[in-house]
Amino acid sequence: MVTVKLGMLHYVLDHIYGAFVHRTKLSPPFFSRGWGGNKLVLLESMIKQLFPEAAAQNWPPRVVHPIWRTVWETKNACLREGVFRTPCDEQLIDALPPESYNARVAFLTPKAVPPHKMSCVVHLAGTGDHTFERRLRLGGPLLKENIATMVLESPYYGQRRPTMQHGAKLLCVSDLLLLGRVTIEEARSLLYWLDAEEGFGKTGVCGLSMGGVHAAMVGSLHPTPVATLPFLSPHSAVVAFCEGILKHATAWDALREDLAVQQAAMTLEEVRERMRSVLSLTDVTRFPIPKNPEATIFVAATDDGYIPKHSVLELQRAWPGSEVRWVTGGHVSSFLLHNDAFRKAIIDGLNRLPWKESSL
């Protein structure tokens, strides 16, 4: 009985937080400027290129060469920040806002350990994660395990946020697809840089919520085994925006009005079905199984108001050999309280990978 009451408390906390953040007038809702017009059509075509029939394409990715500056350094660790031009093709770059052309990363590494004796995990941003700090705090204690942390700033976030966008509320549906596609390309390039250029012994990719969906896609598409670590994340953005709390943060009326300009008027239910169709492109169960699914560990919350349990289990079933670990809590409370569980998953996922031959 106590467990049930605590679970309900966590679930209610998610809804209270969601009501405060998403149902007040503190910021506009998601997609207040509609679908994105011709840009959405282009991106739907480009996203499909990530699916299984084209999984082997675009490898190796375009090489990135970040320009680094040292933020701080101690006898045991070093934090650097780097900037590089997004490695995406010109079609994608033309669709991006100019503020997102250059990618930013933070790179936290242990010292006195050669790269081939180290692991590194690329941490991708969840919804609203505009800075490096939270992910650096997650990765910091892993230094003692000889695990480095690379934090990627997503397009549309942080210093890459368009001037007209307020906070994390993307203006168009096309922005969500573009954010995901560019994040995937940049993360793949960074993993290639860590492997081919820097010689790290093991690599992985993780993310929380939206970042977890992107991490799953990156791990799926990587041609060699990497630790794939999605935390508090669904199998598809459909779940987040059409089933979870974010459906209350979506500008359904603006989307309906935008469609009415392009074609016949639709009911709100028809608009939601259109959204389901578009966001089905983000369904990770349609992506290839990672090269080493045993190194895939999902961490999910028992009482998540944003991500229902069935969504996590759908992806786990699609990737036989992967593991789901449950933490007690909701989306918000788990985000705040269960960093140790996330770190343990990172360590265990990397431990399930062999060291590269050159590191033996």
Q: Which properties best describe this structure?
A:
AB_hydrolase_fold, ABHD18, 12 helices, Protein ABHD18, 9 strands, alpha/beta, 39% helix, two-stranded parallel ribbon, 17% strand, seven-stranded mixed sheet, Rossmann fold, 360 residues
Strand order of the largest sheet: 1-2-3-5-4-6-7
- Low confidence ranges: 14-20
The N- and C-terminal alpha carbons lie at a distance of 52 Å
- Supply the number of structural domains: 1
CATH architecture: 3-Layer(aba) Sandwich
* N-to-C series of helices and strands: HHEEHEEHEHEHEHHHEHEHH
Write the CATH homologous superfamily.
Alpha/Beta hydrolase fold, catalytic domain
Largest sheet: 7 strands, mixed
Query: Radius of gyration over alpha carbons?
Result: 20 Å
Overall geometry comes to globular
Briefly note the CATH topology name.
Rossmann fold
CATH top-level class? Alpha Beta
Task: Please identify the structural class as seen in this structure.
Answer: alpha/beta
Briefly summarize what is shown:
With 360 residues, the chain is α/β, with parallel strands linked by helices.
Any overview of this molecule?
This is Protein ABHD18. InterPro entries: AB_hydrolase_fold, ABHD18. It holds the Pfam family ABHD18. It comes from Macleaya cordata (Five-seeded plume-poppy). The protein is built from 12 helices and 9 strands. The chain is of the alpha/beta class and 360 residues long. The chain starts with a helix and ends in a 9-residue tail after the last helix. It has helices spanning 2-22, 38-48, 90-95, 133-139, 173-197, 210-221, 237-242, 252-262, 268-279, 309-318, 331-337, 339-351; strands at 67-73, 77-85, 102-110, 119-124, 147-153, 202-208, 227-231, 297-301, 323-327. The protein is 39% helix and 17% strand.
